[in-house]
Amino acid sequence: MVGAMANNGRIRSAFPVTNGSKDLTPNSAPASTTGSEYGPVEFTREDVETLLNERIKYKSKFNYKERCENMMDYIKRLRLCIRWFQELELDYAFEQEKLKNALELNEKHCTDMEVSLKNKEEELNMIIEELRKNFESVQVQLAREQTEKLAANDSLGKEKEARISVEKAQAGLTEELGKAQGDLQTANQRIQSVNDMYKLLQEYNSSLQLYNSKLQGDLDEAHETIKRGEKERTAIIENIGNLKGQFSALQDQLAVSKASQEDIMKQKGELVNEISSLKVELQQVKDDRDRHLVEVKTLQTEATKYNDFKDAITELETTCSSQSTQIRQLQDRLVSSERRLQVSDLSTFEKMNEYEDQKQSIIDLKSRVEEAELKLVEGEKLRKKLHNTILELKGNIRVFCRVRPLLPGENNGDEGKTISYPTSLEALGRGIDLMQNAQKHAFTFDKVFAPTASQEDVFTEISQLVQSALDGYKVCIFAYGQTGSGKTYTMMGRPGNPEEKGLIPRCLEQIFETRQSLRSQGWKYELQVSMLEIYNETIRDLLSTNKEAVRTDNGVSPQKHAIKHDASGNTHVAELTILDVKSSREVSFLLDHAARNRSVGKTQMNEQSSRSHFVFTLRISGVNESTEQQVQGVLNLIDLAGSERLSKSGSTGDRLKETQAINKSLSSLGDVIFALAKKEDHVPFRNSKLTYLLQPCLGGDAKTLMFVNIAPESSSTGESLCSLRFAARVNACEIGTPRRQTNIKPLENRLSLG
Hints:
The chain is α+β, with helices and mostly antiparallel strands.
């Protein structure tokens, strides 16, 4: 019986016995069943035949107990043998199924091989046909060469004649040799002058070292200035808080004063109305009194004539006296009302004065607040400038962190649970805290943008860095993060919405506007643009007009774009399309063209996922006609493809290959950053096309900024933590002090990446 495969895939020998790690020979006794309840027992052919042919011997035919025990032992061994056969049968079935699958795979492989062989055969037939054509052309060329050979024989005679003339010329060369010796003496004198120049350069180098030590002293002073600025900023913020408190208290007092003034004005109006009504009543009473006095006089004159009207006169006098009393009362009320009116006018005047004083104090407080805020803005600008200067002197890579807003359908409560922003003075606007498994991870970067930050806010922070490209520096800005974290939105923006333009369009607008404004100072700039993508470790030219050169069916570009670095730190990409641009509108058109050619795909994490690394390069060549100074700047804006986990993205087929290539290149980028952070002698830039292309930006004299983009939902916490840790390592890397590229030589053209 032949060997079989066990369930775990190992090869089993023909009926070996594993008990005691010994093999049974054909003359050996049957396998013992001792320990068969605790471990597997295997049988050989001889064991099975021995077991089947075994005859049980008994000491006594009538000892049934012994016969039962021997029979039970024999039955147990038979059961073990049967069980082993059943397991072996299962192993055979499993092995048979496995062999069927392998056979199907081999048949499929053979089919693929037959197809590929047919394709190869067709290719070979085409090659043979081409070789035949080449053979015919070679025959024609051979006949032509024979004709040329005859002509060469004719020319040989002419060469002999020419040799004679050469000998004559040799004599002339001897004379020129003497002249050359004289020139050699002149060259020796020039070498002496070069040596003198070398000594001068050594002296200049020593002066540069002194200047470097002075810069270090200035750096220490800058540190102290930053500390003083931080203290002044703290005091200004406290002063602003106190002024805001005073301002709110004065506003409350002003509101109370306005309310009391309105009440007084209402009382004044009521008193004025009451006084006017009292004056009317008083006038009426006076008229009644005069009329009654006239009547009294008339009655008195008539009383002498008519004593009968004496009672009426008495009644009229009583009425007149009562009316006089009423008049006096009304006069008293009028006097008191006038006094109250005077008092109310006085209080109103005092309230108006108090209102004007408070209004003036509020204006003063507003001006003080504006001055304090202006000082705060200037202090922040000074802090940023000193911070950038320190970073440039250190040579660190700057890192900005941006958290995208929650998308429709995502849990709105997740951000408050997973991501928070510290409010302390040291970490305000620069810190971010990530909560994972009830553990807080704190990070600090050069700038942190909350989800409420607009595209304009983000661009404002990098505008000075973009300006450096016009000043002759190499500038590199790249976006890093997981799939769906907002990298492409940060770099490109949303098409058709001017308010949501990304960094690339805004950078171009600033460069063209600045170029226009610098013309008055004598500067003229020439701009060249190139765009490429790295897809599955293959470089594609996104500006190529040949569609077949951009992409083929199998996703591999037929053109080989080799990357080369020269001694000056510039990078050349062979066969890459480079175009001169005159306006931002031309660049926008080229960006749209590149976006249509770029590789995108749909995954479970992103509807429009970038499946390649996009590199936009703007090369700037400037010359000042008045000073004859020339500058060479490079602006590299890079949108990296997003890292993703296969368990979340659900990538299969081509998407799976793309994901593997993306993760491999990003892993190589991490190895480069890790080596730079540890200051190792060897940095593995050549491990991927991406890192080799970025070598001048990561290990040269460029100003480099990385955006780390974060998704706020809790399901992405693990990827966000990995991205933040990677960004912290990047922030700690020192790549060297940026160097401005200025010269007086003609500028080289056709360079794609600085």
